[in-house]
Amino acid sequence: MTRQLSILALVALLACTGCDKVKSLTQRNKAPSTPAPSEAVAAPAEEPSLDEPAAANAVAENETAAKTAVDTKSEVVVLCYHRLEGKAGGINSIEPALFEQQMQEIKDSGIPVISMQDFLAWRRGEKTIPPRAIIITLDDGYVSELEVGVPILKKHGFPATFFVYLDFINKGGKSVTWAQLGELRDQGFDIGSHTVMHADLRRKPAKAPGDYDAWLKDELERSKKTIEERLGISCATIAYPYGNHNPKVQEATRAAGYEAGFTTYGARLGHGTNALTLGRYDVTAKMPGNQSAFTVAISFAGMVAPGADPVMAQDAATSMVTQPMSGEVITDASPTIKANISTMGVLDAGSVVMRVSGFGLVPAKLDAATKTISYTVEKPLRPGTYVVIIGAKSNGRPVEARWSFEYNPAGGTSPADAELPPRAAATPVAAPAKKK
Ligand SMILES: [Zn+2]
After folding, report:
1. Residue 200 class from Cβ within 10 Å (0-12 exposed, 13-18 middle, 19+ buried)?
2. For residue 131, what pLDDT is reported?
3. I want to staple 243 with a disulfide (CB 3.0 to 4.6 A). Which of 264, 294, 359, 374 is the partner?
């Protein structure tokens, strides 16, 4: 039972695949990488559905599109690229030849690449998409993304979304210009926000004036508004810098009018996945077993996004009492990690486990009376962000909840533009079912 459950939690956390700055993956999982039973990673799309027909769901969700049959069982993976200039472009850059090869692989896979607008329309219940689809995104606004990427994308007829941040537009050198963004728009590409200054949105950089709330609002609203006004488009999506967010950031993002917020936490996205925590696969990341994130993504072998099925998964941050709290910065290197699991529903006896990024499965204790699972960290934490995943089964079906906190011995508010500590982790992921 634990085995199957752990498969659900078999995730590759790519929390800090930050753009052109530091990226490191802590892969210190103690659990050996074990091949997973294939049924454990079966996509919901492949399972017989007990629900209403998709068309009925669509009608319920959007009466204005009552005649549209929307396949709510479809799954989408989002790829995240940065610079396409080889080693010269830094740690997030890939060789142009690799980009070309990956685009060819997508073509050969037969899995369609859909536009961001189609994805959003599907989520709104306005149009359907194929059972499996891929979205391509490119972050930061480097000219190599245009000069190298666009011809290859156009050769295959692939749509793509460019996430740009205001402080790196028209800055000369390798930055895109507004004119180039206008050309991208005219060629049918989508432009999304990557904020104003490309800082971790969870805390205000020391150099930014004002208080945090005002700064956050400005990062979200001004980037959206400026892109909309300069390009005459709707800027409905944002990619959080470094993929970092928390409930407060999500709420501010929603309040700023965004329809979707993207992280760098690769996952198979469903119709019901939380719109403000949509995971993307950073193609430069290595998954456990040394698989490339690209391979895991396009074989749809990775984890299903939390919230993809509201019955099965949830965002712990919104519904679960946790300690440390979601997004909290702690100074204790050996904290007790705790969660009240009562919001997860009726769980099968003995099925509850806790995983911590960088540690893997931990020997957490469950107090049945208080419905609290807890684990005291024995080996002192290293500075960084930790993701906690509570996995369990409910009537035999896997459920999970997750949140993250940060350990920073200096406490509180380290400048967001400082070098980021390792903040990602990985646990084994099932071998992808090769799909051509
Ligand atoms: Zn970025």
Report:
1. buried
2. 96
3. 264
